[in-house]
Design goal:
Layout lengths: L1 H27 L15 E14 L2 E13 L2 H9 L1 H13 L3 H4 L2 H18 L11 E9 L1
Antiparallel strand pairs: 1-2, 2-3
Length: 145
């Protein structure tokens, strides 16, 4: 009789362990509901008017003009950005004033500038009633004199 109880306990433990392993494996597999949804809305580009900053570089004044477009797919976000273009321009101007002229002339410097603008614009609207949908900042003009 003790052998039967022992065999039953071993079989029960194996069944529970196998069931737990099967549950774990199936829960790790991606399900149809978790698939990435592709956003099919049309891109909307909001042009921010050019921003000009000046720098002293090697004993002379240099000017930097930057123009960016903000890409979104949300008409509400596009309207919000258009209505607040002066606020966005001011943020970009503040960011430009903190840059090192020599660095911003490099490709890596331009990429860093784009990231800073992206972060700055998101922070401007982070406490709004609806979240800002900003996909990316596109550098469309960069003039140095």
């Amino acid at each position: 009789m003790n052998k039967m109880v022992l065999i039953g306990a071993v079989v029960g433990a194996l069944l529970l362990g196998g069931g737990g392993a099967a549950f774990y494996i199936t829960s790790m597999a991606p399900s149809g509901a978790q698939e990435t949804q592709v956003d099919t809305r049309t891109n909307i580009y909001v042009e921010v008017p050019p921003v000009v900053a000046n720098f002293e570089y090697e004993g002379s004044m240099r000017y930097l003009q930057v123009t960016v477009n903000l890409q979104t797919r949300s008409t509400a976000s596009a309207t919000l950005m258009k209505d607040n273009a002066p606020l966005i321009q001011g943020e970009i101007l503040m960011l430009l004033q903190d840059l090192d002229f020599e660095t911003v002339r490099t490709t890596d410097g331009k990429r860093a500038l784009i990231e800073m603008i992206d972060t700055g614009v998101r922070e401007l609207f982070q406490n709004g009633p609806e979240p800002l949908e900003l996909e990316q900042v596109v550098l469309t003009g960069f003039v140095v004199q």
